[in-house]
Amino acid sequence: MDIEELTVKMHQFVSSKGWYDSISKKPQTPKNLAISLVLEASEVLELFQWEEDVVDKPALAGELADVMLYLLQLASVSNINLEEAVNKKLSINYHRSWE
User: What is the pTM of this model?
Assistant: First the structure.
């Protein structure tokens, strides 16, 4: 499954919960999605608190999936082609000095 297909599935899920409705108590605005993305990323970090390696791999997989879902949604509602953005950033990074 590619990014586009995952994005469609993510939108189907969010729509099924009514979170895109204008009266939703969970408005899917770029700001709210960015906040949720950071919160989920913090949950990834929490799994490593006091450990060098992940102890609960299924929990890590679930949290990484949450991060990816918010990332896909934030990119989509912000009209950003994530695949193009990643490729562009990789191209830029190849020419950066990492010293």
Answer: 0.91
φ, ψ dihedrals at 47, nearest 5°: -65, -20
Q: Is residue 92 part of a domain?
A: no
Number of domains in the chain: 1
Report the CATH number that the domain containing residue 68 is assigned in CATH. Answer: 1.10.287.1080
Question: For 64-79, what is each residue's pLDDT tens digit?
Answer: 999 999 999 999 999 9
CB 6 within 8 A of CB 72: yes
93 domain residue, yes or no? no
What is residue 99's predicted lDDT score, i.e. its pLDDT?
78
What phi, psi does 41 have (nearest 5°)? Answer: -65, -35
Cβ burial 51-71 (10 Å sphere, 16+ → b, else e): eeeeeeeeeeeebeebbebbb
